[in-house]
Amino acid sequence: MASVAFIGLGVMGYPMAGHLKKKGGHEVTVYNRTSARAEKWVAEHGGKLAATPKAAAEGKDFVFSCVGNDDDLRAVTVGADGAFHAMKKGAVFIDNTTASAEVARELADKAGGGGFGFLDAPVSGGQAGAENGLLTVMVGGDEATFASAKPVIDAYARMVGLMGPAGAGQLTKMINQICIAGLVQGLAEGIHFGRRAGLDIEKVVEVISKGAAGSWQMENRHKTMNAGKYDFGFAVDWMRKDLGICLAEADRNGAKLPVTALIDQFYKDVQAMGGRRWDTSSLLARLER
Question: Which of 18, 39, 59, 235 has a CA that sits 20 to 30 A from residue 250's CA?
Answer without folding.
Answer: 235
